[in-house]
Amino acid sequence: MDFSSRQLRAFHLVARHRSFARAAEALLITPSGLSVLIRELERQVGFRLFDRTTRHVSLTAFGNEL
């Protein structure tokens, strides 16, 4: 598996902020652009890293391991 540093930074910021909007702001990209980065990373690792609702973001067990 080959992850980009941008994908890993995006993962770290979403995990830290528990918010796609705040993480996107820190990366200076749109929330939809951040979602694409996270979806690509999840596709590469083969599992979901975050449980998402419209108001809540939390790490899955796999995300916690990463």
What is the tally of helical segments?
4
Largest β-sheet summary:
2 strands, antiparallel
Q: Helicity range of the residues? A: 55-70%
Beta-strand content estimate: 5-15%
The global form is: globular
Give the spatial strand order of the biggest sheet.
1-2
| Computed Rg | 11 Å
Order of helices and strands: HHHEEH
Mean pLDDT: 94
Q: Structural class of the helix and strand makeup?
A: mainly alpha
> How many DSSP-defined strands?
2
State the end-to-end distance. 13 Å
Low-confidence stretches: none
Task: Describe what this molecule looks like in 3D.
- The protein is mainly alpha-helical.
- The protein has helices spanning 5-17, 20-27, 31-45, 61-65, and strands spanning 50-52, 57-59.
- It is built from four helices and two strands.
- It has a two-stranded antiparallel ribbon with strand order 1-2.
- The longest helix is centred in the middle third of the chain and has 15 residues, at 31-45.
- The protein is globular, with a radius of gyration of 11 Å.
